[in-house]
Amino acid sequence: MSQRELAAIRSFMFTPANHPRRVEKVFQIGADAVILDLEDAVAVAGKVAARDDVVAAFSAAQHDCLHYVRINSIDTEYWRSDIVATVGAWLDGVVVPKVESAAALLEVEAAIAEAEAQAGLEVGGLDILPIIETARGVETAAEIATAGSRIRRLAFGGGDYTLDLDYEWSADEDVLAYARARLSHASRLGGLQPPIDTVVLQIKDDARFVASAQRGRKFGFGGKLCIHPSQIPLTNATFSPSPEEIAHAKAVVAAFEAAEASGSASIQLDGYFIDYPIVYKSQRILALAALLEQREVS
């Protein structure tokens, strides 16, 4: 899994690992990454058998999307065996729920490294995606992001977060603003990719989903966790630069380069003041657009 692939993940689609019909269809819906779930979506009685389902599904055929497994949380008896059973050449990453400390993250990472070695994989090659979804996790997000681990991004779980705090999760999502800001700051402090935003539980309310995704993007998030196929195109569109954004970014970069060549470091373009921060933002938009375009043609 290349750094280029990892830098352009917008949509992560959850699917129960032990639901054959959903697993069969999930690879065809256009998600950047599929997460086969061993945690919340699998009943206790089926958790052990579902590990084999993960391996079978991911190793059955080549897919355009990345392959992730969500293990059970570290406070359960299942997580370590989840790792041992599912790590292999068919896997791109491991999703770790309810991460609340750097110590817990590093313990999971050590177990994954051991499993990689046992499987003959490059140690450190698998991505690890910690989900921050409790009050403690939000408050220690900076510690987690700067722990010196292999993680490349954080994810936010709004369902467990609002449960933990007994918040009322309404459509305006005001109660999520603090957590989103904490994760964005933590990601910047850790030099990580933009974080991945929470699921939306209302699977038949596209307007609410898009509004949620747009809020996440405003807070610097780079993608979204999804639980229904209809959410994938909405996510990919929201977290991809629009043609208008790309055109404006190109105009900004071109105009600034011309001005800079003549000795100026600040200009006006279409009524906007342009200086280095605006140019850097435009360059970031163009870089993401180029990554996505290259992935589509490869």
Task: Provide structural commentary.
The structure is a single chain. The protein has 298 residues and is an alpha/beta fold. Helix content is 48%, strand content 13%. The chain contains 13 helices and 10 strands. The strands form 2 sheets. The protein has an 8-stranded parallel sheet with strand order 6-5-4-3-2-1-8-7. It has a two-stranded antiparallel sheet with strand order 9-10. Strand 9 and strand 10 form a beta hairpin. The radius of gyration is 20 Å and the shape is globular.
Structural class by helix and strand composition? alpha/beta
- Helix fraction, binned, reads 40-55%
Order of helices and strands: HEHEHEHEHEHHEHHEHEHHEEH
- Average pLDDT rating: 92
Instruction: Tell me the span between the first and last alpha carbons.
Output: 14 Å
